[in-house]
Amino acid sequence: MNTFQLTNIIIIATNFGIALFFIISARKHYLFALFTMSAGVWGIGAYVFSSASIQDYDIAFLGWKIAYMGAFFTVIFFSHFVMKYLNMDRKILIIYLYLSGAIFSFFNWYQNSYYFLQDLRFVFNEVYWLDAIRANNILWYLFYVSYYWIVLPYVFYKLIVKYYSSVGAYKQKIKYFIIAAGFGWLGTEPLFMPALHVDIYPYSNFLIAVYPLIFAYAIVRHQVMDIEIIIKKTLVFAGLFLATYVVIASFAYFGTTFFSNYIHNRWIAMVPSILIIVLMLRPLETFLRNATDKYLFQKQYDSKQLLKLFANEVLSVLDIHTLVNLTVNRLVDFMKLENAYIMLLDESRDVFRVVAFSGMSPLKWHLDAKEGFFSYLQTTGKYLLLDDPSRKHVLEPAIVSVMADERAVLAIPLFHRNEMVGVLFLGKKKSDENFNQEDIDILLPLSRTLSIAITNAQLFEKLSQAQAQAAQREKMAVIGTLSAGINHEICNPLGIARGQCEMFLLNMQDGLYATKSTGELLEQAKVIMEKVIKETDRATVITKKLSSFAKPAKGEITNDVNAEKEIDEVMTLVEHDLKLDNIVITKRVEGDIPAISADRKQLQEILFNIVRNAAQAMGQRGTIEISVYARFGEVYIDITDTGEGISKQDQARIFDPFFTTKEPGKGTGLGLFIVKQIVERNNGRIFVKSESGSGTTFTLVFKAFDSSDVNEHDNIGVRENNA
Fold first, then answer.
1. What pLDDT does residue 707 have?
2. Could you say which of 263, 325, 448, 684 would form a disulfide bridge with 679 (CB–CB 3.0 to 4.6 Å)?
3. Are 374 and 386 in contact (CB under 8 A)?
């Protein structure tokens, strides 16, 4: 026996073994059974032609015909199965595959004519192989190129795309599907090389036998294609059959020996065994189910652990997208469900949309809020369980249809203040058990808490957007004031440049340069142009800084922000405006200041808002000093003004939203609130120290990027607000 024959025996055993299992136990996956069976047909044909001696040309030719039948339909059934598994509607592709497969098969078996297979050559001193070069048959090349270089790459591309767009358990299933089928593809492709006179021994044939083993592992370990339910039922059935057989055999034996002296009718002697079988059947089935759950599939979950998981990991999340995705993933993983979805009511209040799913993707991603299904949940306020016999008679077909479209058996409405904001859909348990009252008692409180968490997350998201918009509006209003204030800073250099040019032109008109040579005139023009360039550069710098400051921050934290440089940028913008109010702004830097981790533009916004508040607090005269220093791995920025200060009672509220000490209509009360939010968003801290009549100091603290952790306490008297 040669090596190639051995690989084909393994291919036949593994592929037909899995195909037989699917045919018996998993009829809904008949396409997969046909796919593996086709691979097994390849193994049969390959075994025939690899067993033929050099004298058995006709036998080898027959083996190749059988093998190519398997090759045709392996690709066809695999592609069709993937399209169906991924819920893809590719009718044209499927029609092409079956039609072309029928054509190839017809010419492959056409009597007394080699329309598909023509010549074989003896290679490796042990096997006849197709000679595609010598045959030069257009049908063979069409099959090879279209199936193995167009169709299969397209199918694998769709699998990979689906893998990256999936989450949770479904993504894991797709991954093993890709790996297993990939082994089969890689095992097949090199087998075409000898046909093209690239004589590589077909060791890759082993891979066609490996991929069913990978599938077998994935089926048991990761429940690919939900075969776990089938395995469990098979084990339970086998256990029941074996136990019943043992009981019947035992009682038959003891009945004939023990009761033969008292009861001469053997059928009557079997009555005790039948009664025992009837009494033990249901408890035995329950025992076997629990045993398979506990020792093989571990379907039982601890309700306390589930509640703890949600309390610690899920319900504390404030980001709405993270919250809903974490919820469905944890429910699927912990309760071992086939799938889970969350639909939320959109802002228009007209449509419920899928915002998160785990497991199989939903067939419908949005539904009209006026659907009878949602009206039923809103009206009753109760969960909907398809397997609940007490409600089956009241459910309309449309309601059942929605549940079927979502592949769900349990729907729990999510209410907030008597309004349904969403629905939690749960699919079947992988153990094939129904949801019981214990499950419902756990899920209902979770759903109520989840409703609150989702509502809070939505409000937090809206608040964050409102804060960002308010901050931008306030900044743009200030920029309007700044623009007027620094207008002369731009007009002055432009005026100087214009004056120089006008003076040169007037002197030319008055003939003052009549006695000058061309070279002298060019020199004079050169001097004027250099002055113009210098003054326009001044104006350009100012306008660029103003334009840059006006753009919204992107929230991109980097590790190379120079605090001193950003202070200079802000001082350039506000310096002239402050001078008009007789306010002097100064900067003091202590030593080398390391870079900090922050968003550069947001740091400018923080500094600008605090400096602007300080200027408004001082009125028409005063001093603002900005000090920068580093202590124990942190960078401190003090902004001190000589204003009237802040009272103790107001210090406790200055960071609250809408709190302001300004006159009505002159302040929104959002400035310092937004400043504090931005500081914390940049992993910083803000403190205030102030006394009435003695000015105010705001202290900003940011982590230095290049610093090491220091355990020594920073005893530098940082001004801290207890608010």
1. 44
2. 684
3. no
Tell me the pLDDT tens digit for each residue of 90-101.
889 999 999 999
Please say whether the beta carbons of 421 and 451 come within 8 A: yes
In this structure, which long-range contacts are made by residues 385-390, counting pairs with CB atoms below 8 Å and at least 24 apart in sequence? 385/409, 385/410, 385/435, 385/440, 386/410, 387/434, 387/435
Residue 598 and residue 557 in contact, taking contact as beta carbons nearer than 8 Å: yes
Cα angle at 356 between 353 and 360, to 5 degrees?
A: 105
Q: Are strands 634-641 and 696-703 parallel, antiparallel or unpaired?
A: antiparallel
Helix H segments across 551-670? 563-580, 600-618, 648-651
- Of all helices (H) and strands (E), which one includes residue 255? helix 228-258
User: What is the DSSP-derived secondary structure letter of residue 554?
Assistant: -
DSSP string, 622-652: EEEEEEEEEETTEEEEEEEE-S----HHHHT
Identity (one letter) of the amino acid at 340? Answer: A
Amino acid identity, position 33: A
Residue 168 has pLDDT above 90, yes or no: no
CA distance linking residue 111 with residue 104, whole number of Å: 14
- Return phi, psi of residue 682, to 5°: -100, 20
CA–CA separation, 462 and 348 (whole Å): 15
Structure tokens that stand for 587 in this block:
């900067």
C-alpha gyration radius of the chain: 40
Contact criterion met (CB below 8 Å) for 137 and 115: yes
Confidence of residue 145 (pLDDT cuts 50, 70, 90): very high
- Kindly report the number of other CB atoms within 10 A of residue 540's CB atom: 12
Lowest-pLDDT choice from 130-139, 304-313, 432-441, 448-457: 304-313
Question: Please, what is the Cα angle at 446 between 443 and 450, to 5 degrees?
Answer: 130
- Better-scored residue on pLDDT, 471 or 717: 471
Let me know: does 603 contact 563? Beta carbons within 8 Å: yes
User: Does the global pTM surpass 0.85?
Assistant: no
* Structural contact between residues 65 and 41, judged by C-beta atoms closer than 8 angstroms: no
Q: Is 407 left (phi over 0), alpha (psi -120 to 50) or beta?
A: left
Q: What are the CA-CA distances from residue 205 to residues 60, 135, 181, 313 (Å)?
A: 18, 24, 14, 48
3-class SS at 703? Answer: strand
Q: Specify the amino acid at residue 206.
A: F
What are the tokens at 672? 């310092």
| Cα separation, 573 vs 590, whole angstroms | 23
- Which residues are bridge partners to 697 per DSSP? 640, 689
CA–CA distance, 614 with 622 (Å, rounded to integer): 10
pLDDT at 708: 45
